[in-house]
Amino acid sequence: MREYPSDRVDLRSDTVTQPTAAMRAVMQGAAVGDDVLGDDPTVIELQNKLAKMLGKEAGLFVSSGTMSNAVAIRTHTNPGDEIVTESTSHIYVYEGGGYATLSGCSVALVPGKLGIMEPNDVAMAIRKSDGSLGHYPNGSLVCVENTSNRGGGTCYPQETLDSIAKVAHDNDCQAHMDGARMFNAAIATGTDPARIVRDYDSISICLSKGLGAPVGSVLIGSSDFIAHAHRWRKMFGGGMRQAGVIAACGIYALDNHVDRLAEDHVRAHRLAEAVNAMDGFTVNLDSVETNMVYINGELSAPQILEGLAANGVDVLEVGPTAVRAVVHLHITDEDIDRTIAAFAAL
Ligand SMILES: Cc1ncc(COP(=O)(O)O)c(C=O)c1O
């Protein structure tokens, strides 16, 4: 592990990354203010920088991807509305049902292929209160996840993204992208980030995943949307005072850690191919487009975890016989060799 205070190969998630020495240096020198009063210059710089990179007007720094999605959903919807999202999406599976509790919304689930929805399926899932004699909730927001985490780190084809946004807008819905790993998609598909998100009304970007910052996400959208989102962030308790210290890491990550995501993708692919070639394990190689590898085994997930851990390799249990390995900026070629050897020894 490069620049990591442990000799274990930690592949549980790309969220385990720790601030590098260069990042700690920018934290040390960061100019700060009070972001709740709106005068932290480093937070403002980060928000403006990312908004510009995505071709949008404004951004809002928040503590996590979960908060970013929650603020987006609350800003776009009214209680009694329904959101439309893929059945394995992070918003549905892993955010504590926040859409229901914090926004008062129900959810319409769309089955996807490796986490990727088809526009026609999205269209069929949108229910409108108008014209239903009051029977239906009001579908008002479509959420896509790019890359799709449970899909295996898969990327949406651009035409599918564009069509889903059109379906949303044609049906009087807003379109939100959970772009926790959108930069992985940009690198993997060779597409300008601004083009990827062009037709989306809001985008959540995580700085603390593949980009390697310690904390934080930024919600991006129009000035009007962000002004409303600001109020919800306040109510959700998400205002942070001298947040420039962590925003500085986000700026550093955007400047230095985007292009290098390509290395993670190459390493993930090498790991996937090697493990898939072993007896007793399968990886759907079609799903390995970015930095994630979902592995199914003949052994139980706890047995796989325990066996790998004994050889200094940590992965995440994601099903009875399934584990996930995620490649990130601390992982070297030697770590991948060690991981392959640890799988071979099981
Ligand atoms: C696709 C996706 N969205 C949102 C999140 C939530 O991010 P956080 O853990 O910062 O709340 C994650 C976290 O892994 C994620 O994978």
Q: Tags for this entry?
A:
single chain; 346 residues; alpha/beta; Aspartate Aminotransferase, domain 1; Aspartate Aminotransferase, domain 2; 2 domains; seven-stranded mixed sheet; four-stranded antiparallel sheet; 40% helix; 18% strand; binds pyridoxal-5'-phosphate
Detailed description of the structure:
- The protein has 346 residues and is an alpha/beta fold.
- The protein folds into 2 domains: 9-16 and 260-344, Aspartate Aminotransferase, domain 1 (Alpha-Beta Complex); 31-256, Aspartate Aminotransferase, domain 2 (3-Layer(aba) Sandwich), CATH 3.40.640.
- Helices cover 40% and strands 18% of the residues.
- It is built from 14 helices and 13 strands.
- The protein has helices spanning 21-29, 41-53, 65-76, 90-93, 98-101, 119-125, 158-170, 182-189, 193-196, 223-235, 244-256, 261-276, 301-310, 333-344, and strands spanning 9-10, 58-62, 81-86, 106-110, 138-145, 174-179, 202-206, 217-221, 281-282, 292-297, 313-314, 316-319, 322-326.
- The protein has a 7-stranded mixed sheet, sandwiched between helices.
- α2 packs parallel to α11.
- The radius of gyration is 20 Å and the shape is globular.
- The model has no long low-confidence stretch (mean pLDDT 97).
- Bound molecules: pyridoxal-5'-phosphate.
- The site of pyridoxal-5'-phosphate has 10 residues, from α3.
- Pyridoxal-5'-phosphate is lined by residues 64-66, 90, 145, 149, 178, 180, 206, 217.
